[in-house]
Amino acid sequence: MAPLPGAELVQRPLQLYRYLLRCCRQLPTKGIQEHYKHAVRQSFRVHSDEDSPERIQQIIKRAIEDADWILNKLRPISAVEAPHQPLPSRSP
């Protein structure tokens, strides 16, 4: 399952870049969002000289899979932390 609708439409690096930045907005906290935005930007700089169409498609496929994994891993954190209920008081 893709993290956001439209993953199947990503064909070019710029589309992937925009898609991954939209995925970052789904993360639970600003700190986590900024961490992954930085990672996305850094990865694009590292792979900016890639010119093999096959390798580009591999990178796109893997990046979408990784985004799916990260969102699935971190979504439960926000669900668990959000409804914080106080512990029941203990009687002496």
The major β-sheet equals:
none
Please, what is the average pLDDT?
Answer: 83
What kind of assembly state do the chains in view correspond to?
A: single chain
- Can you tell me the overall shape? globular
- Fraction in beta strands: under 5%
How many DSSP helices? 3
Task: Quickly give the structural class.
Answer: mainly alpha
Helix content: 55-70%
Low-confidence parts, pLDDT < 50 over ≥5 residues? none
Distance between the termini: 50 Å
Q: Total strand count, please?
A: 0
| Gyration radius, in Å | 18 Å
Order of helices and strands: HHH
Can you describe this structure in just a few lines?
It contains 3 helices and no strands.
Summarize the structure in words.
The protein contains three helices and no strands. The protein is an all-alpha fold and 92 residues long. Helix 1 (13-24) packs antiparallel against helix 2 (30-46) and helix 1 (13-24) runs parallel beside helix 3. The termini are far apart. Pfam families: Complex1_LYR.
Features:
about 0% strand; globular; LYR motif-containing protein 9; Complex1_LYR_dom; Complex_I_LYR; Complex1_LYR_LYRM9
Write the layout of secondary structure elements.
Layout: H1 13-24, H2 30-46, H3 53-81
Helix pairs in contact: 1-2, 1-3
